[in-house]
Design a protein that fits this description.
CATH topology of the largest domain: Neutral Protease, domain 2
Helix content: 25-40%
Number of domains: 4
Largest sheet: 5 strands, mixed
Structural class: alpha+beta
CATH architecture of the largest domain: Orthogonal Bundle
Radius of gyration: 24 Å
Shape: globular
Length: 621
């Protein structure tokens, strides 16, 4: 990508650093400010679209971001290839591998097949697409791993450390994340005499990458038939697209000028994949966060993309209300806050409110309510006094959408201690729990009754790590120790409603996420209990009742999905999923039991009218 002239580069007076010098500085990058990174060539520029070509055509100011910067790494190579991503441009329709963008270490940039520096002057070239999609992913991962995100490195939901990226996977109206092939695959198609590339949309790239991120931090969400768990995956993809667009300074400035400070007056931020939606569905966007959908209106809804819009809409409502509050606060304080400053304050707060709570979610079967409570808890931990009333504002938004109710508000607003100690019979030093899964398991096994874990289950520590998050003001929060543990409870599928699976045994995942601070105080304890009794206290009986409710909901939802023909055989492989129709849920046999899972292929959209043998299946290509 051609080097650009920017405010940073104009100020440079230093001699270009050697590779050895830059590598030495890279080793200390955690202690270097972003502006210093840019000045020292530890961030490199690439032209990336703000949204997609249709948005750019409608609003020329929203075409290419000429100030887009991504982290430099010493191991960058052609492809592009970096530590976490490898672009492999295989076209499954043409059965060809397109020549990769070439990394020029001396010029610190990428070149096309002819040795020419890539730039936005040739946005249709395969190499431009390769670098653009890679740069978008590098930038988004960098944000998720920062203290304003999760404050830790993120693994993938599969074996390996590089996510394969296929910019031109073949002809078709979709894009998807596929766990089995460890890849993000972006298709292309023709519409109105023009070729549409899904990799040319930052919205689509970030949406699909959101699936990969969520699968990495909560891989057991895949083993769920719950409507809200599948919908949460789609919500998080759309949320990633919205947050990354709103974080962009130039995009935010353009939106500010268009809306004059009122985000409810414009669709550019709220809409997802406008070019794709227009071409495929002949509507102004694929989905929009500016909607009025509620849980009551979508009761019984099984389609993930449709249901996801309730939670996406709630978070966008928060964005609007918080931005208005910043503007009004400036007026009442006698100091006028410009819409641009209010929007910056808004994204700083909302990105933390939206991403920090991910670490507080249960390890299995997430619901919208789980996320709402995690958002409120993370906000309480970061700002216990809440002088500006963000917590009641957030509660009201979730109540309006039917995610929480008024009883929840009364309980949540009761005065209480911000932190409590975990009551255990065998004390373990909190800081040591993150040292290994074995250490965390010993802690759980020593304290099964207090942690509400049945004595006879084989508990598995699915993940353990520590995180250092930041407040909006870049103040470090106490280090968090996070432990995810699960177990399986056998469930018999009795009755004709389970079709071909009647008489088989499956399992319901149970478990919890326990988040502690360095002193052993409980930040959060998100549980998904089973039905086995582990004591005789009121708390235990309450847990068992919740386990019974979960079990019944699991059986009812599974029966509904079987009846609707939404469950197929597990598929996939090293080349990815290229079949015409992919079941949104799959079944496979493991140790004599049948397991039901989300398809390892999570696609951009589903076509409700498509069917194959009576099955309502997603179209992948």
């Amino acid at each position: 990508m051609a080097a650009k002239t920017s405010k940073t580069s104009n100020k440079k007076t230093h001699k270009r650093l050697t590779l050895a010098d830059r590598t030495a500085l890279y080793a200390a990058r955690r202690y270097i400010s972003r502006s210093t990174e840019e000045a020292l060539d530890l961030r490199i520029p690439f032209a990336v679209r703000f949204k997609d070509p249709l948005v750019a055509k409608t609003n020329p100011a929203l075409d290419f971001d000429k100030d887009f910067m991504v982290p430099w790494e010493p191991g960058l190579a052609s492809g592009p290839t970096s530590a976490r991503f490898a672009v492999v441009d295989y076209d499954g329709t043409a059965n060809v591998v397109k020549p990769p963008a070439k990394w020029d270490r001396r010029k610190n940039t990428y070149l096309d097949g002819n040795g020419k520096e890539l730039s936005a002057d040739d946005p249709e070239s395969p190499q431009f697409h390769q670098v653009s999609v890679w740069a978008t992913l590098q930038h988004t991962l960098d944000h998720f791993e920062s203290g304003f995100g999760l404050g830790r490195s993120i693994g993938w939901g599969f074996e390996g450390n590089r996510l394969i990226v296929v910019p031109h996977a073949g002809y078709g109206e979709n894009a998807f994340y596929d766990r089995n092939s460890k890849s993000l695959q972006f298709y292309y198609f023709d519409s109105g005499g023009k070729r549409i590339y899904t990799c040319d949309s930052s919205d689509i790239v970030n949406h699909e990458f959101g699936h990969a991120v969520l699968d990495g931090i909560r891989p057991h969400f895949f083993e769920s038939v719950s409507p809200e768990t599948a919908a949460f995956h789609e919500f998080f993809g759309d949320l990633t697209a919205i947050l990354m667009a709103f974080r962009n300074n130039d995009f935010r400035k353009a939106i500010c000028e268009m809306t004059r400070g009122d985000l409810s007056a414009d669709d550019n931020l709220a809409s997802i994949a406008r070019q794709f939606g227009k071409a495929v569905k002949d509507q102004p966007y694929l989905r929009t966060a500016k909607n009025k959908k509620t849980m009551a209106k979508l009761k019984g809804e099984l389609r993930p993309h449709e249901l996801s819009q309730v939670l996406t809409g709630a978070m966008f409502d928060l964005i609007i209300r918080i931005s208005k509050q910043y503007i009004e606060r400036g007026k009442s304080g006698g100091k006028r806050i410009s819409p641009a400053d209010a929007f910056w304050d808004t994204i700083q707060r909302v990105q933390r409110m939206a991403i920090h709570p991910l670490d507080l979610l249960p390890p299995v079967e997430v619901t919208f309510r789980d996320y709402a409570l995690a958002v409120l808890r993370a906000e309480e931990v970061a700002g216990p006094t809440d002088p500006h009333g963000f917590r009641p504002m957030t509660i009201d938004v979730f109540i309006k959408r039917g995610i929480l109710d008024k009883n929840d508000k009364a309980e949540l607003m009761q005065p209480h201690q911000v932190f409590e100690r975990l009551n255990v019979r065998v004390f373990h030093e909190a800081a040591l729990l993150a040292s290994s899964r074995a250490e965390a398991y010993r802690f759980i096994d020593d304290n099964r009754p207090q942690l509400l874990v049945p004595d006879n289950v084989d508990v598995i520590v699915s993940d353990v790590f520590s995180a250092r998050k930041l407040t909006r003001e870049a103040r470090r929060l106490p280090r968090q120790i996070l432990i995810q543990y699960i177990w399986r409870e056998d469930v018999r599928l009795n009755g004709a409603r389970f079709g071909e699976f009647a008489g088989r045994t499956t399992s319901m995942l149970c478990g919890a996420t326990l988040a502690l601070d360095e002193n052993g105080n409980v930040i959060a304890w998100a549980r998904k209990p089973g039905t086995q009794l582990v004591g005789n206290s009121d708390r235990v009986h309450k847990e068992q009742a919740e386990g019974e409710r979960r079990r019944q909901a699991f059986l009812d939802t599974l029966a509904a999905r079987i009846s609707a023909g939404m469950i197929g055989q597990a598929a996939g492989g090293a080349l990815g999923l290229l079949a015409k129709s992919i079941a949104p849920f799959t079944s496979r046999d493991v140790d004599g039991q049948v397991r039901f899972e989300l398809s390892p292929h999570l696609s951009l959209h589903d076509d409700e009218t498509a069917s194959m043998g009576g099955r309502q299946w997603q179209i992948s290509s």
